[in-house]
Amino acid sequence: MAKYRAQITKGREIRYVSHLDYVAIFERALRRAHLPVAYSEGFHPHMKLAFTPALPVGVTSEAECMDFELTADLPTEEVLTRLTKELPAGAQVVKLRMLQRKVASLSAAATLARYVVNFPHTVIHEAERTRVLHAYKEAKEIPFVRVRPKYKKEFDAKTYWQDLNMQAQGDTFTLLLHINITPEGSMKPSEVLQILKERFALPIDLEEARIHRQALVGDDGALIDCI
Amino acid sequence: MVDLDGAWLGSVEKPTRYTGNEWNEVKKDWSQVDCTFALAMADVYEVGMSNLGLRILYEALNAEANIAAERVFAPWPDMEKEMRTRDLPLFSLETRHEIRAFDLLGFSLQYELLHATMLNMLDLARIPIWAKDRTLADPFLIGGGPCVYNTEPIADFFDLFLLGDGEEAVVEIAQALITWKREGKPQGRKGFLLRAAKIPGVYVPSFYAPRYDENGRFASIAPTEAGIPNIVYRRVVKDMDAVPFLARPLVPYLKIVHDRLMLELFRGCTRGCRFCQAGMSYRPVRERKPAHLKEIAKQMLEATGYGEMSLTSLSSADYSCLEPLVEDLLQDYGKERVSFSLPSLRIDSFSVELAHKMQAVRKSGLTFAPEAGTQRLRDVINKGVTEEDLMRSVKAAFANGWKSVKLYFMMGLPTECDEDILGIAALAKKVVDAYQEVKGRRGVKVTVSVSCFVPKPFTPFQWFGQIAREEFERRQQLLKHAIKDHAITFNYHDARASVLEGVLSRGDRKLSAAIYRAWQKGAKFDGWTEAYQDDVWQQAFAETGIDPQAYAARNRDMNEPLPWEHTSPGVTREFLQREWQKAQEASLTVDCRRGKCSACGVCPQLGVKVIDWQKERAEKGEMHG
User: For the complex shown, is ipTM > 0.85?
Assistant: First the structure.
């Protein structure tokens, strides 16, 4: 028996794959790799896999994590090589480590997500950026209403949305966002973009946004390193 | 190449229907191939990807170094709206080339209610809808699949059709196209079609002209070009062990309708059910060798990582070596947690015991198809199943732990009367009671699904007038009220869509105007209950001067020429007439694979024979013993 944690990607090729289907990609790859994955007991045995909470559909990531258990104690290099060969474009293993001690489950470990959002062909001048940054900093609270088919929730976006950093390079405009993940909830990066556009009048085309998750951080650092 | 990078794609339902990149997808560099072939179905991805035939053709074509085969399915209306707003043409999943840029565009014709969606796809692809309007800048439109035994209603939209088994012929067609291109496309589009028409199984509709009598009724159809056959017979694979098989199936990212591997045990079925077009048009039975099947299963599992495999065929339980095959598969893959299943069960306890073995744990529900509610009517359709068979089977199922059973029936079969309808309710009730008898308690779930019968070409019922919509609805209500037990769930279809299917399946070339008109008025996804618009079709018929009932509801005279007889699966008119006669007498015909030959005409006409491995072994044993 050995437990492993893999830091995995969700690249452009598979960014619209739903969370459950994303899980299935790894299940099938593990089968193709003939790795001796441990199964649960009971009438409907399933692979013992655990993932970080669902990434919003359409967002890419280099910081997702998967924990899995093998019935044999295989060296990480071998597991990495065998698994990598069977993964489709967009689903790659960035890092693989053996879990040495009991750690917080992936569903609850992350407290902060870092995103980088690129807008190609978008020029936003320095004055405009300064104005928006100032307005963001000045705002004591940013009321936001999340509307879903079945419910409506009102909250202060500043509870989750920690920081704003804007950069311009050539005709690409880039936003760096830090978003808190708490037991009570979190925010989607697309919701922050909506606030920037609607409340702060940042002239961005939401359809052009390429949202990428760079890191998932727990209390002791990146999830792959705090094991 | 079509650009799908914008975040807008995230706003449509299930974007992975359109993004490709699945495991085992084949992407070729177009500058390195001589022929590009788009394989299509006029339905959504989840349906299209569940079709075994398209998967086989994809692999057979891509096995050729000089051919690139890619896929395209119908965009759901939300995606269509985005594509039209953004001025995006229909594109392939693999390389996102626009469909119009392909050399060949092949549609899998699964059933008639896909026709309008197909026209919509041509329009999205910016390909002229009528074959006569296409130029050298357009692909050749080719149709294949179960619908090809009456292509006349869509003949004017297509450049060519391929009748029958496609895995060999499709490559020959592509190679003929390559030769024609290399020679500088002599005689233009017609030049290629003349060559293609020489390939066995290929029907080029523009080389035939229909004639109608003074009442506008179909009279005859004849070739207009020299060297074109009067009757095109279907292509048939003689030895299923000698043709390319599916070894590296694509692994979709979203859940498709049949989300499991499909192991094709054999092709054809000779049980001789008189309503069944597949049973008539895929004859005779051609089995694969068990050893070969095991090898195919191994390759597919290795290549995909799937944990589920269905043993598919028209009637899988009839595979002569099924039991040893299943035992071997369970032994080889049980520890790897691969589960195996049969798509439907023959009504006997052998099948139930086998299903029990296959599903040692999960009891997901068994499906049986008695098709009709009384013995008399089951004999009319030559189903060859008795009430005792069914009772024995369901009792075996209940004893083995199953708690739910699905029963499939048809409504509107020839000679059907109210007694037969009420017989469905009575039979379902007996199944409920059988559970009580076996288990000593209640708690079974019986689902009764009743479809509306559509008479199809090249079946003994091809002369039979389909019953009218109102009559279907009356019989549905009659049955609904006769089912009183709460353990029984009754499902039935929209009779209007089945009547439309009845019109289109036995139509002639004049119907193309109505199909075109219906599409113009917004018909598409007619097989989807939520999308079906009956009024649009009725208006389209009225505006094009078509009387739909003359095609669907009319009992045809035995001597009347039929619009589909020049594209034949090989069964003779004499055989079908004999079977029609026997149906009226409720007299049975035995399965020719083990019993007497029923002289359907297929084997001598197509130069093919039954391949049944158990039988072959027994005969060889006798010879040597």
Answer: yes
